[in-house]
């Protein structure tokens, strides 16, 4: 993207303008919904998991550019990962994958990490109930 | 890409006629107004005083009561601190509204190290100051009330005359930050009854880096900047001559063109207002419906975040501002810098502080076509973000 | 009448190349650097940061250590008061030289209301600070030393490196007012060892209304102007974008052209110096003969008063300055405003305080012909005034 | 004068550039020399007086523009006046005759008034000794 807007990297703007995996998922295997108390952002993350592998991820997010871009990026990063691998994804990693975020916006990337944690624990809880 | 500038409250382009008049004062007439013993200096001093008279003319003041500053932030700091320091024997209590600009609020708060106390008076849901609460907040040691003339974020115009009456009755000095109004709507310091008033050049097509403080005859302030006794000792420092000349010229132009500009802005504003009301669901206009700046429309939309709205609009070439926390102080360093808009909080906008608040501030050069283009693209942007939101 | 401008220490014309580069930032690129969500704002922020880097480049600093101000008076006030307030827990003693500019002296004196004490260190007959006296004046509660780099009236360059060493050894912060030197002779903050340094645009062909404070990494100051957190919170207020751009451009030009300008100035200065020595009896050059600004010649003549000299010279189209009491602060209101030049008193010029002191400060565009014209007319003027004097 | 210089009126500048009655006088009937402690100006005023009437006045002055102009003006004002009339000339009157002086320069006009007083008392003292 040439039309670099704001304090964001081109990659952030790309994921903001063209978010990947935006949408809902029927009967997700893991569902996380987290909010950011600092600025009111909310993210919902849906995971499709089979044999401990994340096959698909979807999100819905209310929030600023950084919140939306990190949501989009984290879904991309999750796909194909094992649960164990996914658990290791940090907000720094998401921000780095987006070529960085302004310091003041780093907290927005926490949403992605927390959403991921919440969705995985939802999955593990559900799995525990089933098995 | 064509740019549509809808953020005149944040700054304005300098009128080319103003730049034209400033130019000689950079090069051929570059003298220092303090160098009174030769012609370059004399020309400079003359230009300075002519500019002063023109600025005074815009606000119904006398030239000798205009102090040039580097901008509104300096004028606000100078008024608040200068009055406080000059009157600290009388008391150390200062009253502000809940929706003052940071340059008033933080200037006053900076005085707390010397024992000054601040009371912030609430505003109603339109952003109008609560006059009863104002009266109730006055103490025996209150020395200063500072209330803005118009709020930048929500456009509301405060009842300055009533506030001035209250202040005068109690013998308290009254400063008004009139950055939002001077050059935009009629401002007359005598009719308003203010003791001090701040204005900024770049808010009405003048240059950046120049502003002024009006100080009523007989009011003393302790200076913020000491030095070579320029500006009658109130504000030292070699004068920004091109800037002062520019402010003078733009003051004259603003005075002449104000009626037609206001008419133009009101037409566009109503078009915008009506268009938004019709096309956007769950939109909430902020500020007072009638006591407001002519070119100003502010609102928040449910379920779409402000910064995201800005980014999408910018992508379409539309430039405006959001009061949302996430979009302010992006250059800040800590999360605290992201504090929610105090203004929106003060008028009771619900607590998702990253609401989709936007401020559209139209200018003299905007036109109907631009407003219509905005009305065309905005609903789609809102829809897109709402579709992305986890809420219904 | 042709004007010969010999008062570059008081101000300089803005270089037309600088004005040219500033122009777009008034009109097409008028954005507010804080408006980071749209292009006009982004352009502005970019231009601001580029200017900062250029200013830093002129003085060997890092861009992040440059704080833009409205001029040197503000930068001096900001340094003195900002350092004082930020360090008042450590002590309240400040050391200045006897020949500081009013914007340093009175900024420091203004702090006395909060219990700060000032010691003024004497200078020798050349105007060089007495390093022994400086050391002796240091107390346990000394928090700041502020000494100017070059004196405007007598051109003397102070031993900044030695002063910085003394300050560093004692853990005292050191600020230098470098208005006289930055852009004129090489200034490198690292080599000088200063903690803070003031510069002004209009003293080296930049615009008026813009200056900067260099603040070494890690030094904290309490801001003078609170508000919207511009300049990393050190100096709030919407940035004077054309001004900062102009300062950036002029910094770059000054850096490139400095060697040839200095060479030119030294030739003219020597011509002037020799010519005056030969043609005027009872002339006394002031300031240091070698440790001085390249284009600077200052002197006093016996039995001819400074203001009268200025008036006669202005009549011939020659514009320069006098440090004589009678010619300063003509816009003052009281006789106290006519206080004798503190600088001349400090270097021991005898007590007829209205002596015929003159300061000639040459600029890059002066030429040999102008100097020769001055040398031609000046002796006659001196003669005329001496003939009028009641003394032999 | 069209080339108005500085903060001074055209009349001040006229008297400064073309001072009237500048010079010395042999055996003056009255001689006053006064200095201004504020700024170091010095004025010497010579009077030729006959039958209580000032026939001629001359001055020499070291000082600023205002000091020289007021010196010049006061000599003009004195000529033809009686001693009693001369005694009534104030510095304000001299300044007014020059179309005013900048406030900060008013003290310079005191020089003229004091010079005049000194010269007249010198005259009266001498006359007293002679008669
Ligand atoms: C109401 C108000 N007051 C003061 C200011 C400060 O003005 P400046 O940043 O030009 O110093 C602003 C700036 O936008 C403002 O909107
Ligand atoms: C040595 C010195 N410092 C500071 C200043 C103040 O600069 P300004 O008047 O541009 O604010 C001057 C002005 O001439 C100066 O000569």
Structural summary, described in words:
- The complex is a heterotetramer, with 2 copies of chain A (131 residues) and 2 copies of chain B (392 residues).
- Chain A has helices spanning 10-17, 65-78, 83-87, 91-97, 106-130; strands spanning 30-35, 42-50, 53-62.
- Chain A is an alpha+beta fold.
- In chain A, a hairpin with a 2-residue loop joins strand 2 and strand 3 (53-62).
- In chain A, helix 1 (10-17) crosses helix 2 (65-78), helix 2 packs across helix 5 (106-130) and helix 4 (91-97) packs across helix 5.
- Chain A starts with 9 loop residues before the first helix and ends with a helix.
- With 392 residues, chain B is α/β, with parallel strands linked by helices.
- In chain B, strand 5, helix 6 and strand 6 (173-177) form a beta-alpha-beta unit.
- The mean pLDDT of chain B is 94.
- The chains are: A alpha+beta (131), B alpha/beta (392).
- Chain A binds chain B through residues 3, 5-7, 13, 16-17, 19, 22, 33, 38-44, 60-68, 102-105, 107-108, and chain B through 1, 303-308, 311-312, 314-315, 324-327, 329-335, 337-338, 340, 351-355, 385, 388-391.
- The structure holds pyridoxal-5'-phosphate (2 copies).
- One pyridoxal-5'-phosphate sits between chains C (71-73, 76, 101, 103, 148, 152, 177, 179-180, 200, 202) and B (227-228, 237-238).
């Amino acid at each position: 993207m040439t039309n670099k807007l704001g304090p964001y990297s081109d990659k952030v703007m790309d994921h903001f303008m063209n978010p990947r995996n935006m949408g809902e998922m029927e009967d997700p295997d893991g569902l996380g919904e987290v909010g950011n108390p600092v600025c009111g952002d909310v993210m919902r993350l849906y995971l499709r998991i089979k044999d401990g592998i994340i096959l698909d991820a979807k999100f819905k997010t209310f929030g600023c550019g950084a919140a939306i871009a990190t949501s989009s990026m984290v879904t991309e990063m999750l796909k194909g990962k094992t649960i164990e691998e996914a658990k290791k994804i940090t907000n720094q990693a998401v921000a780095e994958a987006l070529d960085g975020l302004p310091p003041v916006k780093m907290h927005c990337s926490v949403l992605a990490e927390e959403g991921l944690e919440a969705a995985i624990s939802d999955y593990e809880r559900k799995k525990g109930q089933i098995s | 890409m064509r740019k549509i500038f809808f953020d005149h409250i944040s700054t304005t382009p300098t009128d080319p006629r103003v730049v034209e008049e400033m130019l000689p004062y950079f090069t051929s007439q570059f003298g220092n107004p303090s160098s009174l013993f030769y012609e370059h200096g004399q020309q400079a001093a003359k230009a300075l005083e002519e500019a002063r008279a023109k600025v005074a003319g815009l606000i119904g003041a006398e030239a000798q009561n205009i102090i040039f500053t580097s901008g509104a932030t300096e004028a606000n700091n100078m008024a608040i601190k200068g009055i406080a320091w000059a009157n600290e024997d009388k008391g150390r209590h200062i009253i502000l509204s809940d929706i003052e600009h940071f340059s008033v609020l933080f200037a006053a708060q900076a005085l707390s190290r010397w024992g000054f106390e601040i009371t912030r008076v609430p505003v109603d849901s339109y952003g109008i100051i609560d006059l009863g609460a104002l009266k109730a907040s006055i103490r025996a040691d209150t020395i200063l009330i500072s209330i803005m003339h118009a709020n930048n974020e929500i456009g509301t115009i405060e009842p300055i005359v009533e506030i001035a009456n209250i202040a005068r009755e109690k013998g308290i000095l009254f400063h008004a930050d009139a950055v939002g109004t001077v050059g935009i709507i009629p401002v007359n310091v005598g009719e308003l009854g203010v003791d001090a008033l701040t204005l900024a050049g770049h808010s009405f097509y003048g240059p950046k880096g120049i502003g002024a403080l009006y100080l009523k005859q007989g009011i003393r302030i302790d200076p913020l900047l000491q030095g070579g006794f320029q500006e009658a000792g109130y504000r030292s420092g070699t004068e920004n001559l091109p800037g002062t000349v520019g402010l003078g010229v733009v003051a004259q132009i603003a005075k002449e063109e104000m009626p037609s500009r206001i008419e133009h802005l009101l037409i566009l504003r109503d078009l915008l207002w009506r268009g938004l009301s019709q096309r956007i669901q769950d939109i909430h206009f902020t500020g007072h419906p009638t006591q407001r700046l002519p070119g100003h429309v502010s609102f928040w939309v449910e379920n779409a975040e402000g910064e995201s709205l800005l980014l999408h609009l910018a992508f379409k070439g539309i430039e405006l501002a959001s009061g949302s926390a996430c979009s302010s102080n992006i250059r800040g360093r800590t999360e605290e810098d992201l504090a929610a808009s105090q203004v929106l909080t003060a008028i009771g906008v619900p607590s998702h502080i990253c609401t989709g608040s936007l401020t559209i501030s139209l200018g003299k050069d905007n036109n109907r076509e631009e407003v219509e283009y905005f009305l065309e693209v905005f609903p789609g942007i809102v829809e897109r973000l709402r579709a992305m939101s986890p809420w219904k």
